[in-house]
Automatic annotation (TrEMBL):
EC id: 6.3.4.19
Organism name: Halomicronema hongdechloris C2206
Record's subcellular location: Cytoplasm
Domain statement: The N-terminal region contains the highly conserved SGGXDS motif, predicted to be a P-loop motif involved in ATP binding.
Binding positions (ATP): S32, G33, G34, Q35, D36, S37
Protein name per the record: tRNA(Ile)-lysidine synthase
Family: Belongs to the tRNA(Ile)-lysidine synthase family.
Domain annotation tRNA(Ile)-lysidine/2-thiocytidine synthase N-terminal: ranges: 27-206
Molecular function as annotated in GO: ATP binding; tRNA(Ile)-lysidine synthase activity
Family annotation (PANTHER family): TRNA(ILE)-LYSIDINE SYNTHASE-RELATED
Length: 335
């Protein structure tokens, strides 16, 4: 067993408490080569004998940077030197955005996990990432769902018949702690030059905003924001269970399973928080691309509006109209 550090003990206890990687799990570890993912790989590899895990590594080459091939080679070489299986996936074309890159990356991880028989995919997201995400989404006007977006675990592909779980074992530690661990262990990592590019909003949050908040307001701001996200995650989960129950008494779907009308009386006696959450879910199920506060508010208003009241056109052209005790969705070709 390698040297047992405080961080090894912390992660070991956390994994016991949260059951992110049960005994004997087969785990695909996503490794970019940066300090967080290298720290994660080292920790899981060192803890492997205690848990009986089978660990394999996946590296995603987005072809965004001139050093992308060298970055991939660094990860592959380190894994080979330590007897760890490593697969690199390379994008046919560089993704057009961060969102597209994330979707491509997770699609690839899902395929590799299935190929290797893994039921878990582990990523190196930290408390610092959680704090950055909360601030980023707060400034974009996100609700509680966006503010708690980085959770300990979630389905990697929710619609997949054989669910593979995405887990984030480092969410309780900061990036400064992974830096200290890498230094203590003599663990090399790859410097991604794009992490210093202030053209990206997330980099400005990490490089400028969080240090300012730590200096001027709260030295433990990263931990505090991460704990706030944890509180919100529990509250969102509770609200979702309540919406599940309300949904069954409110929503009537068409033959294709898409909501076509809503029964108003149960909504009228429900809290506005549940009204908004249910309406947002319905609009998402109707495949409205941009479901923001304004779109939800247009339909919420109809819960108590007079007969024949209707919304402005929603994205895609449909309108919502009051028909007695019902709110009916009318597509543009049926209006």
């Amino acid at each position: 067993m390698p040297d047992w550090t405080d961080l090894h003990a912390h992660i070991h206890r956390l994994l016991k408490a949260r059951q992110l990687l049960p005994q004997g799990s087969h785990c695909l570890v996503a490794v970019s080569g940066g300090q967080d993912s290298m720290a994660l790989l080292k920790l899981l590899w060192d803890l492997r004998p205690k848990w009986g895990w089978r660990v394999v590594v996946a590296h995603a080459n987005h072809r965004w940077r001139a050093d992308a091939e060298a970055n991939a080679s660094f990860v592959e070489t380190w894994c080979r030197d330590h007897g760890i299986s490593c697969d690199t996936v390379t994008a046919a074309q560089p993704p057009s955005s961060e969102a597209a890159a994330r979707q491509w990356r997770y699609d690839q991880f899902h395929q590799l996990a299935r190929y290797h028989g893994c039921t878990r995919v582990a990523t190196g997201h930290t408390a610092t990432d959680r704090a950055e995400t909360l601030l980023y989404n707060l400034m974009r006007g996100s609700g509680a769902d966006g503010l708690q977006a980085l959770t300990w675990q979630r389905p990697l592909q929710p619609a997949a018949p054989l669910p593979i779980v995405l887990v984030r074992p480092l969410l309780a530690i900061t990036r400064a702690e992974t830096v200290a661990f890498c230094r203590q262990q003599g663990l090399p990592h790859w410097q991604d030059c794009t992490n210093q590019d202030r053209a990206y909003a997330r980099n400005r949050i990490r490089l400028d905003l969080l240090p300012y908040l730590a200096e001027q307001f709260n030295p433990r701001v990263e931990h505090t924001l991460a704990q706030t996200a944890e509180v919100l995650a529990a509250e969102v989960a509770y609200l979702e269970t309540m919406v599940d129950s309300l949904y069954a008494s409110v929503v009537e779907a068409d033959a294709g399973g898409r909501p076509r009308r809503l029964h108003r009386p149960p909504l009228q006696v429900s809290h506005v928080a549940l009204q908004r959450r249910l309406i947002r879910r319905v609009l998402q199920q109707r495949q409205i691309a941009q479901v923001g506060f304004e779109q939800v508010a247009k339909v919420v208003h109809l819960i108590t509006a007079p007969h024949r009241s209707q919304s402005d056109p929603l994205p895609g052209g449909a309108i919502a109209r009051v028909d007695g005790d019902w709110i009916r969705f009318i597509d543009p070709d049926c209006a």
